[in-house]
Amino acid sequence: MKILQLIPYTILLMSLLLPTVTNAICLAPTRPYVPSDPVAAAAYADLIKADFETYFREAQAYFRCVDEERARTFAQACAVSESYAKFLREVNR
């Protein structure tokens, strides 16, 4: 019963100690459309090229976002792990 009484205090303590960071939403880019009709592809070549260039820029931004979110989550997981170890030491006294 004593452990159950400590849970709300532990949650409150962890929420105060851990930095509050909002999770990033990393959206993968949409693949460019290329018409199967060669005449249409030639007619819209400039637009299709621009779509591919946009795709590659957005793909790079997506990879950066995923890398940053991974690093942030890893750091947070380390801090949570330390908090949990401290909690267990306190509870098992």
Give a nutshell description of this structure.
The chain is mainly alpha-helical. The chain has helices at residues 2-17, 38-43, 45-91.
Key attributes of the depicted protein:
93 residues, mainly alpha
Overview of the molecule:
By secondary structure, this protein is an all-alpha fold. The protein is built from three helices and no strands. Helices cover 74% and strands 0% of the residues. It starts with a helix and ends with a helix.
Which outline best applies?
rod-shaped
- Determine the number of helices (DSSP H or I, runs of at least 4 residues): 3
Q: State the share of residues found in helices, binned by percent.
A: over 70%
Taken in chain order, the helices and strands follow as: HHH
Would you identify the regions where 5 or more consecutive residues have pLDDT less than 50? none
What gap, in angstroms, lies between the N and C termini? 15 Å
Mean of the pLDDT scores?
87
C-alpha-based Rg, rounded: 24 Å
Write the topology of this structure.
Blueprint: H1 2-17, H2 38-43, H3 45-91
Helix pairs in contact: 1-3
